[in-house]
Amino acid sequence: MSKIESVRLYRSDVGSAACPAGLNPEVPPIVVEDVPLAGRHELPLDRYRRQRLISTDYWQAGLKLREDFGGGEFERLARCNYDGLPIPPQGDEDADLSVQSCLARKRYVAAMRSLSPRLSPVIVHVCCLGLPVEEWAVLKRVAEPDAVMLLRRGLAQLVEHYGR
């Protein structure tokens, strides 16, 4: 049964009273092709790869940087109270870091040092924070095509770094 037939069947069961005012119940609805939608929690890197804006190598390098950023537990440095002021450390927080976290931090720092200073902000915004490059372009007042180009250049430098 097609979508149009199912709508007509519904309308015949419910009657024309179910149709909103001003709509002709005899006119078939517009059929819209199903478009694959992105998952609710899809990362911008995944979307750019799906749209073929970046290659698989670039995507893998960005995910590797994101993994090291998350594994390095950098969110400990970003803890703030409701005023936006940093919360003083309670106890010896550096001692709480695992060996894996320290190694991830070292890998992250090495990767960020391999990037040129102009490219590192867009890489952090997209790869580490998981925010879209379009948002970065608006915040930094950069044209969107230029922001995508900067993202690609930064990812290319990451591919070179990880390829060593």
Automatic annotation (TrEMBL):
<dbReference type="Pfam" id="PF20057">
    <property type="entry name" value="DUF6456"/>
</dbReference>
<protein>
    <submittedName>
        <fullName>DUF6456 domain-containing protein</fullName>
    </submittedName>
</protein>
<feature type="domain" description="DUF6456">
    <location>
        <begin position="50"/>
        <end position="163"/>
    </location>
</feature>
<dbReference type="InterPro" id="IPR045599">
    <property type="entry name" value="DUF6456"/>
</dbReference>
